[in-house]
Write a structure and sequence with these properties.
By secondary structure, the protein is an alpha+beta fold. The chain has one domain. It has five helices and 13 strands. Strands 1, 2, 3, 4, 5, 6, 7, 8 and 13 form a nine-stranded mixed β-sheet that branches. About 20% of the residues are buried.
Length: about 270
Amino acid sequence: MAKVLKSLSLKTKKADAAADIALINQFSVKELSPEEVYCFSVAMCDNDIDRETERFTNKTLDALAPMFVGKTVISDHSWRSGNQIGRIYDTYVQRTAEQNQAGEPLRQLIGKVYMLNNEDNKAIIDAIEAGILKEVSVGVSIKSRTCSLCGEKMHINWSSWKMECEKHHVLGETYPEEGYCFLNLDDPGDAYELSFVAVPAQRNAGVTKAANDPDVDEAFDTLLSCPDLSEHRQFGELLKHMQQSSMQAVDREERKKILEENDKIIKIFEKEN
Ligand SMILES: [Zn+2]
């Protein structure tokens, strides 16, 4: 099950602490008064297609809503204790008047968050109110990524380097009869955190990038737009890196098969004993 991180630009609305205090106190060790908390609602994620050409389905948003209740709010995806800044005390899915890029009504998963209104949190509360924090990002686990056109699983085609499904729909392509091909993120396993991101990702050399980082997608687009890379001084390095990466993917498949075989053998063994 893969952990997925998705970001949205930050939109918050102050919530009514007096009206919500009973809900908030469900998650608090000590009984809090409305004056002791700062609370607001925030759009955590939605059903729109993002830069990675994938989106949460409506069913996924509905399933994620209860999973986020009680979960921690952190800053910059860091779980260090000082970075745990609040807690989600309520969630709901809201249908907006806008449309998403799939031509459906845009739906957002809204989280209501409380923070202690104290000196420690003053800087972050001021930053939220002043609009200095730019993004929120959710961390969730997703069991299924499927083709929007036929519902089949998608994988990388190693000869074209494109994501495609069993029926050869290619991610990001538009088909005259069937429409735009994107990935549906379905079947969430769990919701881990909501994170406030103060500093957008830096484009520094020497920073290790995750394979699903949008910057990596952009780098691939640039490389693929070059008619010939063979003369480039780093071409050899790139080729080696890609071969290693595809080997690792093959290795991972192999390891999965071996583990599944092991499981079967253990079950047979357990039955016999
Ligand atoms: Zn398909």
